[in-house]
Design brief:
This protein is mainly alpha-helical and 125 residues long. Helices cover 60% and strands 5% of the residues. Helix 1 crosses helix 2.
């Protein structure tokens, strides 16, 4: 049975990076940047996030000092829920996994930002 959480909270560091990405004008809001971070983690760091065990471990190390997002805003069409089920068959925590992927991806993007290599964003891809 799937989890019944209704909100997620990004880590403080991930939220900081998402806000900087939004403030750059590249993303309309921090939520879009967070979703991009999730995609970035899946595409470029799959070996670090390819099992439920790895994501559960990552999720447990991130603080909850960022913005709280409602699942309805994050995944209004259940696309992310379906994506997590496809990537991690049998998962009962798709939104916890989404949070871990967002935090992990935003942290990796933050490393590029710190090095001055994130923008323009297409050069980081």
């Amino acid at each position: 049975m799937a989890e019944s959480i209704t909100t997620i909270v990004l880590s403080g560091q991930a939220q900081k990076v998402a806000n900087q990405m939004k403030d750059s004008g590249t993303f309309p809001d921090a939520l879009s940047a967070a979703k991009f971070g999730m995609s970035y983690a899946i595409k470029y760091y799959w070996e670090d996030v390819d099992t439920p065990e790895k994501l559960s471990k990552l999720n447990s190390i991130y603080d909850s000092r960022g913005t709280t997002y409602n699942i309805g805003s994050l995944d209004p069409d259940n696309y992310i829920d379906k994506l997590m089920s496809a990537l991690y068959p049998g998962t009962n925590s798709p939104y916890a996994f989404m949070r871990a992927l967002m935090c992990f991806g935003l942290n990796k993007l933050g490393d590029l930002l710190d090095e001055g290599r994130l923008f323009p964003i297409n050069k980081a891809m």
